[in-house]
Amino acid sequence: MDVRLHSIYKEIRQVIDRYHPSEVAIEQIFFGQNTKSAIATAHARGAALVACACGGCTVGEYTPMQIKKAVAGTGAADKHQVTTMTRILLALDHDPKPDHCADALAAAVCHAHTVQNDRRAQRAHEAVVGFQRYPGEALERSM
Fold first, then answer.
1. Beta partners for 26?
2. Which end of the chain is more exposed for a tag (fewer CB within 10 A), N or C?
3. What whole-number distance in Å separates Cα of residue 21 and Cα of residue 133?
4. Binding site annotation covers 11?
5. Would you say residue 130 has pLDDT above 90?
6. Phi first, then psi: what are they for 91, rounded to 5°?
7. Which positions are catalytic residues (predicted)?
8. What is the pLDDT of residues 89-124, one digit of tens each?
C-alpha cells in the first residue's frame, strides 16, 4: 500500500506542477458498509491532501450530497443525473468517462459555486458594515 500511496502523491504533484491550480476540490469520504474500502479510500485521500498542501493549493472539501446538489439541484441525484448535468454545465461534447472523471468534475463545479457564493456573501457583508459605519456616505454613493 505504501508504494501505491506514494504513486498517488507523485501523480497529483505532477498535475499540480504542470497546471499550477491555486484551489482543489475533494470529496469527503462517505462511510458505507465496507469499512476496508473506506480505510483504503481514506489513505488515498490523505496522500492527495498532502500533495495539494505541498503544492500550495487551497483545498475545498465537500460531501457527496453537497456536490450532487450543486450540480443537479438535489442531494438525492443519481449518477446519471450528476453526469448529465456536469456535461451540460461544462458544455462537454459527451458524458465524462469513467464515472470517477464525472465525479471529479462535479466536485470542481461545486467548489466553483461555493467560492463564488462565499465571495458574494463577503462583499454583501462589507457593504452592510460600510453602511453601518458611514450611513451618509453609503447613501450618497447609491444615488
1. 61
2. C
3. 37
4. no
5. no
6. 55, 45
7. 27, 100
8. 999 999 998 888 999 999 999 999 998 877 777 777
Return d(Cα 88, Cα 58) in angstroms, integer.
27
- Are 47 and 3 in contact by the 8 Å Cβ rule? The answer is no
Cell of 55: 503544492
CA dist 136 → 52, 97, 122, 139, 143 (Å)? 46, 56, 22, 5, 11
**Would you say 94 is a known binding-site residue?**
no
The answer to whether 102 touches 96, Cβ cutoff 8 Å, is: yes
Average pLDDT over the chain reads: 88
Tens digits of per-residue pLDDT, 14-36? 999 999 999 999 999 877 767 78
Active site members: 27, 100
Per DSSP, the three-state class of 60 is strand
Residues 118 and 59: their CA atoms lie apart, in Å, by: 15
CB 16 within 8 A of CB 51: yes
Of 90, 87, 94, 95, the residue nearest 112 (C-alpha): 90
How far, in Å, CA of 125 to CA of 108, rounded? Answer: 26
